Amino acid sequence: MIFTVAIDGPAAAGKGTISRAVAAHFGFAHLDTGLLYRAVGAKGGDPVEAARNLTEGDLGRDDLRTLEAGQAASRVAVIPEVRAALVTFQRGFARREGGAVLDGRDIGTVICPEAEVKLFVTASAQVRAHRRWLEVGGDEAQVLAEVIERDKRDADRAVSPLKAAEDALVLDTSAMTIDAAVAAAVAEVRRRLAKE
Ligand code: C5P
Question: Is 14 near ligand 1, meaning CB less than 6 Å away?
Fold first, then answer.
């Protein structure tokens, strides 16, 4: 069975948690596509070459989750050749046998517009910054400033900007528990799977 769940949205909206839970629930493979851009940003040197030669080892680095790595990722993610170099791998993953969940910014709009389920997971910048701050610590105002800066760069870029696909189900998790958000996502996938 080919079945793709595309989960897009801004940083720290809950995409990662929801994606992992949906993948585990249905036994689908999961790809956090942000990791690809983080690995390219962290590699240094020419980002286009880094994207073309990305290896599994690059994705296994333990410094990819930091705020700095997120900023570096969003800077290389504006380069069209970097995005182009990562498309084939992501498309292949999305349409693999057995079902796949991909989370990112452009999965439902560019990577896999034919995805059977599209979710756009969002939350207010304040709520997202607070969640990120609980993970990384430091100065909360600084974390909020970085979240806003990264949102702006992701939404304003010319190629594959962050936006909800027209046929995406929007899930605003600002006032939702993570369990409720996961339950809503699982219900949507189940509803669509019943039609297969
Ligand atoms: O999701 P995450 O915070 O790990 O993504 C890091 C950065 O990578 C994002 O801010 C965005 O600029 C970029 N990205 C992207 N397209 C994706 C996933 C991530 O442009 N599909």
Answer: no
